[in-house]
Amino acid sequence: METQIIALSPPSLEDLAEALRAPLEANFEHATISVVTCPDLRDAPFHLATQGLSGDEKIADVGGQPNLFPRPRLDCIWSMPDISRAMEMDEEKGSLLGAGAGPFHVVGQNCELAPNLSWSGGFGNVVNGTRVALIDRDTGGVSVDKTSSLDCALMVNLFGSSGDTGPVLKISTKSRTGPEKSFTECIRKALHAVYGASCMISLGGVVLVKSGRARYHVMPDFPSEQDLPFKERKDVDNWLTYHDFDGPIVCLSVLHSADPEALGLRMEHSHAFSPLGKNAGGHYHYDIGGDEVGVEYEAYFNTAKTLYRVDRPAT
Description:
This protein is mainly beta. It has helices at about 15-25, 80-85, 105, 185-195, 235-240; strands at about 5, 30-35, 60-65, 75-80, 95-100, 110-115, 115-120, 125-130, 130-135, 140-145, 150-160, 165-175, 200-210, 215-220, 240-245, 250-255, 270-275, 280-290, 295-305, 305-310. The mean pLDDT is about 95.
């Protein structure tokens, strides 16, 4: 894999909490930001494969959207254990979570991927809670299920760590009153506003949409050759399918405040699944509230200390 390695020097979690407080309070009726010891994320309602988000924290941006536009590059397939090696992770113990395109060559069609895995004692002992979301060919509805595959395709954004417990940023909000409908974009834009375009702060973690309704997209199967190539970016947007789901929904998120090295990063990427086992999830966009219950979020994030740009596509 062709890999660029960027050392990061993020502010302390306490400084980040202070920087986020005013922007989040301006966007939500209730907002609290603090530094806490990470709860065991293996427990309900998160159901992650890893206990925590600490230890050798790093982020990888692999492939990218040019691998989908103007036509899917079906040779862009990676093994997540191989990506972890490119990220210089410990092969004896580690974890990955994030968002990407699923292993179409395994599933049998294009799909969304919510990577969620950990290992102890090597990759022969993987706990794999990864989900795929796809469009059912018969019903046109969303289907979400676990996959045993450790592959991904086209693009993926991953937060890696040893999976230890430790201090993390906890963000809780309720009842959005401001204009920023995306919880993760609200965080990303707030960090950019405070720290500027020359400072890269990269976060990874988990966001629980506790209640309220949010919008997600799920890629359908790849278009037929006669419908390719995509001519404009809006053609991709029109090809996607959009769905509204009520919480609780678990989102696995990676975001960056800026891209000062011009690495062609995906600035925010969050993929989701229902912790109740329902056919709900996909690529998180933003909340749309709800008739009876306002949107409520609870999130845990940690900062990456190293960024790996892997197999950046030619644009």
